[in-house]
Batch of 2 targets.
Target 1
Amino acid sequence: MADSARPRPVILRLPPEVVNRIAAGEVVERPAAAVKELVENALDAGARTISVAIEDGGLKRITVEDDGCGLSAEDLAVALERHATSKLVPDADGRVDLLNIHTMGFRGEALPSIASVSRMRIISRAAGDAAAEIYSDAGRIEGPKPAAFTGRGETGTRIDVSDLFHATPARLKFMRGERAEALAVTDVVKRLAMANPGVAFTLENNGRNVLRYGAETGDEAGRLARLGAIMGREFSDNAVAVEVVRDGARLSGFAGLPTLNRGNAQMQFLFVNGRPVKDRMLTGVVRAAYQDFLARDRHPLLALFVDLEAEEVDVNVHPAKTEVRFRDAAGIRGLMIGALRHALAGAGHRASTTVAGFALGRAKTEAPVAGLLWQAPAPQGYRPVSLPRAVSEGMRAPFEYEGSPSARVEADEAAPPVSGYPLGAARAQVHETYIIAQTADGIVIVDQHAAHERLVYEAMKRQMAAGGVRRQALLIPDIVEMSEDEAARVLERSEELGALGLELEAFGPGAVCVRATPALFGEMDAAGLLRDLADDFAEYGAGLALTERFEAVMGNMACRSSVRAGRRLNGEEMNALLREMEATPHSGQCNHGRPTYVELKLADIEKLFGRR
């Protein structure tokens, strides 16, 4: 009875100001989103210098000033209308192709959306026109009218946004704090500056300079300089270039060495056609490319730039344009993984300089106070010894210090010359675990077990690639019950999994029959592996669980068959290990991203002893 008495709904057209505020809720969720839209407009206007200033995290005031092409008085009047844009040009038949986007903005929603929830003033001057300004208070527009232009160049635009969300006070309740909002604005400006190294950027917060990046050159060196200014000098000193072109798609950028890593993925950036985007695919790509160099809780640093035809990527997925959709996502993913692996292999035995920096930093903090005479206490049972005369006469055989049987030193003439060898020549073995080598301008300390473990592991990978993965047929096939969508995802990739030794076939709705497994695994939990693979295919588009399990097994085998810590090596064996490290890719880190050696430059050592 109650249902029959319910009144029929009446469909009404919403007033324009309400429509604008709804749009603002999608496009301008916080001050950082407003800054992003305004800076992107400046980039589309061809600006070479962009200045951003905020107060109270952007809630009180946002000012964006540029030296772009500017707007005429007539353009200003239209710019604050919804869905009015200069960035979508109809063809001869009046049709607009939304899949052929070459600009940062194109929706025509940013300015009217921001203006509908704030007080906005725009002053602009285009070439050949007088300067003009227009003002909006929560969507109520005044102007345009003549104005004085004090921009950086002959043309440009200055936009002042004050009291953001004053027209929607409920939105203010959901803002975080001034500091959090200011950090979000800083992150937005950093990402846009990374994508546009040829543009100078400045950012001020409450009158204090936060960021200042000068314009860089348009080549690879300029891009790395901008990335180093934002991601840190550690990154620029320890990054390898990534460059590959395939099927009309170009991938470029820089990736950090595995030994330069962090506990989170905040220093991983992806740009598509110059647009900063956030894509879950990047997480899977990085895991796949670095999976046998890093533990799963460690994350490398990288910045990748994908450039492809506009028709191959949809940037119209999200109102804020922070997400994209690739037409050939699997192809782009494969391109990125292959390029990263190739770049890391090209780094050879390099380990990041931060390893030595960390060691030097600790040494400096633990050094004795200057001006005090400090002497280490003699170890128990220690007897001072004098160097045998044979040593000064060039004795070739190694000798041992009394009271320190674990330190073995090679005489200088017994070792090969240090020149021409990046890891130098072995001079000593300490505690039957660490090799001390002298280089042309410093010393290298090698963890013999970790280094040899990596060498054995790389050899096993080469053998597996050459001979393929051996299968072990199951006497009784294992039937794994799964949900229908999980089973479908796994069976869809059965050919790919078969190449890795996992033979599968369908066994009714929601069930998979496992007929063979990789022989290297021995007995295994097939059900657990298949469920992990189904999750990986859903999230990353690749079966990382299987390859990670391969690498874990091979890593354990390599660990058991490598030179153990505590084994005494002679000079020839130590130098052979160094030469093999120099010739083997990825030998600068073990399978978990830990360094296999530390290099200390002579200048740094001299600083420790006050010689510099």
Note: Residues 362-405 have pLDDT under 50 and may be disordered.
Target 2
Amino acid sequence: MKKITSLFLFFLIVHSFTNAQENSCIKFPEHDRAMVRPELPYNISNERFIVHYDNVAIENYAQRTLNHIEYAYQIMCGEYGWRVPPEDFNNGGDNRYDIYLVDEDNDIIFGYNGITVPEIPGNWQYEWAPSFIVMVNNLQESNLKMVTAHELNHACQIAYTYRDAESTTWFYENTAVYIAEEVYDYMYLYFLGYFTNSVNPLDNPELAINSVIMYNKYQYAGFLWPKFLNEWVNNTDIVRAIWAQMGETPGYFTLDDIDLVLTANGRSIEEAYSNYAIWRYFTGGVRADDFHFKYASVLPTSKIDGTFNSYPVNGDLGMYGPGGTRFIELKGDKDVLDISMDGADLYNGQPLKWKGFAMEIKTPQASAANEIILNSSNEGSIRVINMGNTVVFVPVFMSEIKNRIITLFSFAAPNLRGVLFSNEYNNADIGGNLLFDNSEVLNSGTIKTLAISSNHSVKTLNERFVSPFVKHNNWNNQQSLYYLNKGFLVNPTGDVGQRAKFFNLKSATIRNVIDGVSFDDGLPIRFNDPWYVKDANDNQSGMGDFRPFTSPYNPTGKYNQASGGVFLNQNPNFLPNLSHYSIKAESMFDATLSHTGKTHRFYFNGWSGANYQMQQVGSNPQGFDQKAVVFTNDNALVSCQL
């Protein structure tokens, strides 16, 4: 028989219970007899606890049990602030808390590693109760630590309330597993055993969070729920605060009490259901990320109910209570997906409530959970532009109904592509704006849905950025597409993104040298910068537009700019069909020099300089016609020798 980690065993005199099947994890004594504490001859104690045992051979085991429960007490009640278990009216010898170590086949504990027993005297009017613990006397050391911490947390829980367990013990076991792991900082990962061949919140996310399935251990694996609440709200006291609220509310209103505490922390239980559903997808070594569960990578991978690569698809999914969810992955080469859901409206005349999400998975970056807005009939749809990412459909049931409740779904892929428009530097979005179809201004990073095979235009509205100092160089890493604007066709396959690529500008100087001396005499230089913006209408030079400048000339890349530069290492193989810088010299020209006041005739003699490469692209073999230039480093210098 498989052992269960712990059990609440209630001693009842005046209370009767219904729904025993749901509470099958609680071993109820007969209503007409008390639960008798074990009578054991030996004990070992400190100022707070007494550990009782029946054989001197296990004295060391008893001492270790005492040490472990004291350690758990210091963390749980000292550091975490849980309520100290109350005095027990001198049962067990005095008012210190009692732990009994018995053989595993003892009737009181048979089938369990440990039980915590509330003691409720007749006519007891309080929400809280005293208790004692019974544990087996042969646990391995790591199990002994975890079971001791687990049972002590039960004792702290019923120091707030035992009455919430009158209907179900799900949150008692959820919390005890979670707190025991917290006490030992997940050193033993004891919780993993609750996922092995068992019903659990990852293999069975469709079940209600308040499910109790005893021998399948669902409520133990449900420790994920309080763990989630702590990490989602980012408040290490949130779970204890829920128990304090449960103690203030007479009777069983656990879900209401959770909602009250979440509301005080700016959240709600409906938000919690939704986010708990989303978080459970991101578990296991492949799907874990840095934005959801701590230790998510060591948790089992949650179950997927279906994966689709072609569309349309129609179907239905069943959830079984509040917080129930399902995961369906949508893959394939479709950029755009239309997702619709229609949740059941009523159950036995009672209105039902749903949430729905279409998650764009972007691991290791943060994924996006897009809510499907539902109307009063729980119908809604959303268009998702997934751009090659997996999309996960996540319906979440919100109502406190424990039954199979159905939502319908449909997935379609319209004849559209998602087109990204961006300004990029070093493959990262640099901001700014783009103009779509000469009419619509888009923020960089915008994705538009466009019909397949449609024609459009795009223009970056940022010729340059100052910080970092970069200038537009090309589109989509295609060096021949160097103009600020371009037309494009929305292809049915492949990457259709329109990315304006920006490169660094580096300083360069082009000058005339007369008889080996550089003069600032404004002698003419003819330079072709295909990226050069010539006017306020963003007209560019393109190839073959040799514009006149005067020596020395420091290229700026745009008219009316005092600073700028050139792109380095452009077209190093001098391919004539790709954009490149070029310079040009006449074989002979006349010019007036300011320092002589006379007109002189100059003859081209050659080229010199530093940090550049040059190649003849004109027709004059003497070398004074057009030359292609590649600037290879900062502060490049090209001199025309006259």
Note: Residues 508-641 form one domain.
